[in-house]
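In line with agreed milestones, the collection of sequences with tokenised folds has grown. One record among many is set out beneath this paragraph:
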Amino acid sequence: GILIPVGMDVSPAYTLLRVFIFAAVVAVSVMGDHCSSIFDTTNIASAGAQCYHLNHVSAQIPYVLTVAAISFVSYVIAGFVQNVYVCLAIGVALTVATLFVLRAATSRRETANA
């Protein structure tokens, strides 16, 4: 919440770039919330799961980094395309493609171990 005014001041007024900057600030804040061991929601979630909070954070990191990589690629594409709907479609396609790749890698690993 603190960085939203900074991001809005950096972006030109009434342009599409404002939408992308706002989305990037919110995405980074969610990423920080899940990767940090000192955030209150992370500590509450680990307490609710009755596990050590650093174990909870280390379990979250692969998911967070996967989504961060997809978001990074989407924001780079958004800088070139500058169309919200096209960027949303590309982001959804990247997410679905990543899920299929992870599913194939997991099934390949399971068949190799069996």
Remarks:
- The chain has five helices and no strands.
- Helices lie at 3-10, 17-35, 40-48, 53-81, 84-113.
